[in-house]
User: Which sequence fits this backbone?
């Protein structure tokens, strides 16, 4: 299953008929995966996907900006759905600049989930919205994540 297929399956299952922005906390919970804050000693990380007592858990950093937390939870959900198993803690550097195939796959999943191709297409092509800040606001993602996504989808 590709990252796009995995993300679309989640959107179909838990987000059908719902409006933007996509809420990754809601989707993870609906998928039966608890999301909670990283413990104090782990706050140097951005997130963590781990198996605890045989059950998947997602942890995120509540001291980071909300847009960052949203991306992190989507990224960690990607680790779960793409079958990556328990992972080392994710630093923000490891998540954004990584060339690790597993990390880039989780990032691709997060982008597909938070900025569904169909919704991007609708806003950019049908409604002619091309301002990065406006689009990032619709999807509640950072401007850099939005720029990257638009480039990937061939809109810029
Ligand atoms: Zn990761």
Assistant:
């Amino acid at each position: 299953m590709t990252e796009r297929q995995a993300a679309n399956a989640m959107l179909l299952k838990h987000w059908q008929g719902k409006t933007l922005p996509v809420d990754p906390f809601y989707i993870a919970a609906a998928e039966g995966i608890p999301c909670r804050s990283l413990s104090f000693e782990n706050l140097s990380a951005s997130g963590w996907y781990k198996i605890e007592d045989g059950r998947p858990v997602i942890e995120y950093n509540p001291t980071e900006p909300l847009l960052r937390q949203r991306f992190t939870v989507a990224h960690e959900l990607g680790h779960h759905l793409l079958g990556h198993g328990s992972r080392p803690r994710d630093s923000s550097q490891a998540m954004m600049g990584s060339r690790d195939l597993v990390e880039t796959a989780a990032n691709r999943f997060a982008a597909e989930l938070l900025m569904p191709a169909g919704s991007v297409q609708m806003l950019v092509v049908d409604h002619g919205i091309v301002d990065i800040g406006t689009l990032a606001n619709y999807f509640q993602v950072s401007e850099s994540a939005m720029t990257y996504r638009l480039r990937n989808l061939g809109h810029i």
Q: What stands out?
A: The beta strands are 35-37, 47-52, 55-60. The chain has a mean pLDDT of 95.
